[in-house]
Amino acid sequence: MKRRTFFRSAAAAAAAATIPIRSPLDASFLPVGRRARDVRAITGDGREVTLTSAAIEDLNARMFGRVLLADDAGYEDARRILNPAFDKNPALIVQPVGSVDIRHAVNFAQEHGGLLTAVKCGGHSHSGKSTCDYGMQIDLSHFRDVRVDPVARTARVTGGSLLGQLDYESMAYDLVTPMGTVSHTGVGGLVTGGGFGRLARRFGMSIDSLLSADVVTADGRLVHASDDENPELFWGIRGGGGNFGIVTSFEFRLHPMQRQVLGGAIMYPISMARDVLNLYGDYGFNAPDEIQIDCAVVIPPGGAPGMAGFQVCYSGAPGRADAALGPLRSLGTPMMDDVGATDYVALQRSGDVDDFRTAGGYLKSGFISDMSANLVSAIVDGFEGHPSRMTTLAFQQGGGAISRVGNSETSFSHRTSQANMLGILGWTHGIDASEHIAWIRSFWPSLEPSIDGFYGNDLDEEITAAGVNANFGGNYQRLLALKNRYDPTNLFRLNANIEPSA
């Protein structure tokens, strides 16, 4: 749900959460004398199985981390993800504190017929893929650590870490790697899907700074992947999502950058939405790499005035800032302009919201290559607010260094896209949201003629298996071969799933 906080500074956007960072020592060992019980569960293909108390206790005995059942302390917090619209109850939750624990969890799932398995890092899966009913959730929230080597300009990041940790540690040395826009996003999900962010146009996507990774595959092996070792797997995890295993460790290249950037929002009245969108297409898609310009049309709930405008991050030379920002201020006097000097780590935290349990949400997305007159008209003519929801149409900018990597150099295949268009709804959790979801489903077809594919991290429940396959474009057959090799039984299916053919 990270983009549900897209214009928090402009309109108090809905729904996200800060997940507390815990020490592995907090996660170790279950209470002495705790006894398991038989638990009903399901496999990935829907078969019912029974997890016996003996099997659960054996898994617990092998783990350094925790195994939680529904009546255990910590289960309720662990099972939740950031979108409370998904209220699911796994049969058991495993909280690893290291790669060996993850191997034990994966082997346990396979030993019991291929348990339905969800992997949770930051819990930002807006479509609910990081949790499940009656399966096993592997909750990586106790497996968080970042180690920076300022001399080599690299960082090693464990699989459950949050991007804010990496920003915090690396920026202490005036080093950075491109990562998302909300600090409590999980590195694992973000990076394996590609990884957009405020610095992507300057330094590339997150996957473009990835040097190596350690992956627990579906057969319980720990496999190192890099350009020199298992290079095909390394290619696949850079955009193929969680299809091939659980990444336990990432190694990133770090880039020199000053801490102080210019960031904030420039917002105009919604009556100027057409002008804002046209300017975004004319200038935003041709702007210098050092400026990230995201665009949004926003109608808050409760009758507050709607807005259209830009969220920016300028990380280049101070002397060129006015020239880079000037066109965005050319439409007249904005309703709001809070762009100013700020610490990059603080800017990365600016979209965080402390309490995610009060707001539900829904998201649709698609890549666009230009801001055509037809697309602008479809947006302006069809966009509607509602008194009980936050309604946002946002554009996360592409181009720049992202587009200078070929579509087949990594498995992420949408390098030529100019922006990721996002329809984002937020509402008070607990209300009947059916009319809100029905509205965006009726509005979205008017935009689809301009869309070419979607971001795998924004998977929509309406997208079919054939649609997922087609979205990988010319990389699909190569990804399918990897799936057949590393996960032939489709243990890792709760993602933008490539169904194996083996």
Structure overview:
The protein is an alpha+beta fold and 502 residues long. The protein is built from 16 helices and 21 strands. It has helices at residues 8-11, 24-27, 53-62, 75-79, 99-111, 163-171, 187-193, 200-203, 231-237, 273-282, 321-325, 344-349, 373-382, 434-443, 465-471, 476-486; strands at 39-42, 48-51, 66-68, 92-95, 117-120, 136-139, 146-149, 154-158, 175-176, 210-216, 222-226, 246-253, 255-256, 260-269, 291-299, 307-314, 336-337, 340-343, 359-368, 389-397, 419-428. Strands 14, 15, 16, 17, 18, 19, 20 and 21 form an eight-stranded antiparallel beta sheet that branches. It has a five-stranded antiparallel beta sheet with strand order 7-8-12-10-11. Strand 7 (146-149) and strand 8 (154-158) form a beta hairpin. Helix 10 runs antiparallel to helix 13.
Please outline the major beta sheet. 8 strands, antiparallel
Mean pLDDT: 92
| Helical content class | 10-25%
* Number of DSSP E strands: 21
Task: Give the SSE map.
Elements: H1 8-11, H2 24-27, E1 39-42, E2 48-51, H3 53-62, E3 66-68, H4 75-79, E4 92-95, H5 99-111, E5 117-120, E6 136-139, E7 146-149, E8 154-158, H6 163-171, E9 175-176, H7 187-193, H8 200-203, E10 210-216, E11 222-226, H9 231-237, E12 246-253, E13 255-256, E14 260-269, H10 273-282, E15 291-299, E16 307-314, H11 321-325, E17 336-337, E18 340-343, H12 344-349, E19 359-368, H13 373-382, E20 389-397, E21 419-428, H14 434-443, H15 465-471, H16 476-486
Parallel strand pairs: 4-6, 5-6
Antiparallel strand pairs: 1-2, 3-4, 7-8, 8-12, 9-13, 10-11, 10-12, 14-16, 14-17, 14-18, 15-16, 15-20, 19-21, 20-21
Helix pairs in contact: 10-13
